[in-house]
């Protein structure tokens, strides 16, 4: 089942998406336990940013924040997911950055996670080339 790292913590401005992925997370975990004794394997794949037709890397369809995150190769992730499912794994979160996000979302209170998200947004805004041009030209960034 395809889930998302957005299922690990509420995501502002993506409330419906993260809530639906949280549902998929719980459904997948429950089904994994229910059917594994019958030899049926269910893997919950929780990828982060994927370079897909819907979310093409560098095409400007997504926010600059999203473009700062690591993009995953769908073909590599698909192959690895199939391997993990064959081994009977319940959950697969590819990529070191996204694994860290998953673990930190379990260890940190949600208020801390929201502060981290705000800090990331600020960092992305202050490091984006368009914001630097605006600062040099004297145009307010607010």
Describe the structure.
The chain is built from 6 helices and 2 strands, in the order αβααβααα. Residues 131-135 have low confidence and may be disordered. It has a two-stranded parallel sheet. With 142 residues, it is an all-alpha fold.
Offer a quick outline of the entry.
The protein is an all-alpha fold and 142 residues long.
For the largest beta-sheet, the strand count, sense and barrel status come to: 2 strands, parallel
Put simply, the count of helices is 6
Helix content range: 40-55%
- Overall number of structural domains: 1
Taking pLDDT < 50 over at least 5 consecutive residues as the criterion, the unreliable ranges are 131-135
Global mean pLDDT: 80
Instruction: Give the tally of β-strands.
Output: 2
Order of helices and strands: HEHHEHHH
Q: Quote the beta fraction.
A: under 5%
What is the approximate shape? globular
CA-atom Rg in angstroms: 18 Å
Helix/sheet category: mainly alpha
Distance between the termini: 41 Å
Strand order of the largest sheet: 1-2
């Amino acid at each position: 089942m395809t889930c998302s790292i957005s299922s690990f913590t509420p995501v502002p401005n993506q409330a419906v998406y993260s809530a639906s992925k949280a549902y998929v997370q719980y459904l997948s975990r429950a089904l994994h336990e229910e059917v594994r004794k019958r030899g049926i394997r269910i893997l919950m794949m929780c990828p982060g940013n994927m370079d897909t037709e819907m979310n093409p890397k560098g095409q400007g369809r997504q926010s600059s924040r999203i473009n700062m995150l690591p993009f995953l190769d769908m073909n590599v992730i698909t192959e690895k997911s199939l391997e993990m499912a064959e081994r009977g794994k319940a959950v697969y979160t590819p990529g070191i950055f996204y694994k860290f996000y998953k673990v930190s979302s379990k260890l940190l209170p949600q208020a801390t996670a929201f502060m981290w998200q705000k800090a990331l947004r600020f960092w992305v805004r202050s490091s984006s080339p368009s914001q630097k041009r605006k600062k040099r030209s004297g145009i307010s960034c607010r």
